[in-house]
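Sequence only, no structure available. Ideas?
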Amino acid sequence: MSDATPAPNDPNGSNASHPGFDAMTRDIADVPAVEVITTVAVHLMSAAAVNLGLAEEGERHKDLDEARKLINALAGLVTASATEISSFHAAPLRDGLKSLQLAFREASVVPDEPGQGPGEKFTGPIFSS
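Reply:
I predicted one. Tokens follow.
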């Protein structure tokens, strides 16, 4: 019996459905940094929203400890990259981040002190309006 899948150490990646490392490297090199950053931010936002219980069957997936980690990572990414990706891209990411921070505060049984919530060491205190 033959297997068409290349060996894990096959540098040529001869199977068309599994491109080789060189092909993947060229593909990612063609993606602008702003797209990579915003894509990662959207993934962090989506995962945080699920862990905050904001998705379908929310309570089943709710995990505030995981949400905190994701929001912290998102806040660091958004804060660090804001000047690099322009206000056009950064503003919606900041808005989404703030919404998640507020949702976290509302979901917490014992809310963090202002400035102590997830991501607030990067963004400053978040207050409900």
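The chain has five helices and no strands.
Hope that gets you unstuck.
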